[in-house]
Amino acid sequence: MILSEHRDPRMVTIRRGGLLTDAEHHLLALWAAECAEHVLPLFEAEQPMDTRPRDAISAARAWADGEMRMMEARAAGGHAMGAARPLRGASRLAAYSAGQAACVAHVAEHDLGAAAYAIKAAQAAEPDNPGAGRLERDWQRAHLPERIRALVLEDQTRRNPICWYAFKD
C-alpha cells in the first residue's frame, strides 16, 4: 500500500481538483522511470527474455513525452507487475518498481511506489549490506529534478510509514 487514505492536493492534478501541474506530473513520471531503471538489471539478470518491466519504464517515459495515452501506460504497468508476481526477492521488487513507474501516468503518487520498491530491491540484492537501501535512496534523491525536489521530499516524509519506511534518514 503506497497510497494514503487522505491525498495531498499537491499530488493531485489540476484537472482532478488538485494543485499538480501537467509539467510536474510528467517530471514525477520521468523520475519514477529513472528510479525503476536503476534497479531493472536485478530483474533482467533473472528474467532476460521478459521485457514487461522495461516496456513499463518506456511507457512511463512515452506518456510523459505525450507519445502514449494514460490508459496504455497504466496497462503496461499492470503487465510489469504481472511479471513480478511469480518471482521472489530483488527481481520481483524491481519489476514492481517498473510497474509503479508506469502507473504514475494514472496517479502521480505512484512515484513513491516506484522509488520505494527500487529501494527494497537494492536491499534484497545485498542482504548483508545494511546501507544498500540508503545508498539507493540517496541515488534517487540526487536524480530528483529541482522543480519537484521539495514536493517529493515532503511526500516521502508524509508517506514514509506506508512505504515500508524506505525513505527513513
Characterise the protein shown here.
The chain has 169 residues and is an all-alpha fold. The protein has helices at residues 22-44, 52-64, 70-84, 89-103, 110-125, 132-142, 146-159. The chain is built from seven helices and no strands.
Provide the succession of SSEs. Answer: HHHHHHH
Gross morphology: globular
Low-confidence stretches: none
| Largest sheet features | none
* Distance between the first and last residues' Cα: 21 Å
Proportion of beta-strand residues: under 5%
| Secondary structure tally, helices | 7
Structural class: mainly alpha
Number of strands: 0
What is the helix content? Answer: 55-70%
Mean pLDDT rating: 97
**What gyration radius follows from the Cα positions, in whole Å?**
15 Å
What descriptive keywords fit this protein?
mainly alpha, 0% strand, 169 residues, globular
Q: Could you give a short description of this structure?
A:
It is built from seven helices and no strands. With 169 residues, it is mainly alpha-helical.
What secondary-structure arrangement, pairings included, does this model have?
Blueprint: H1 22-44, H2 52-64, H3 70-84, H4 89-103, H5 110-125, H6 132-142, H7 146-159
Helix pairs in contact: 1-2, 1-4, 1-5, 2-3, 2-4, 3-4, 4-5, 5-6
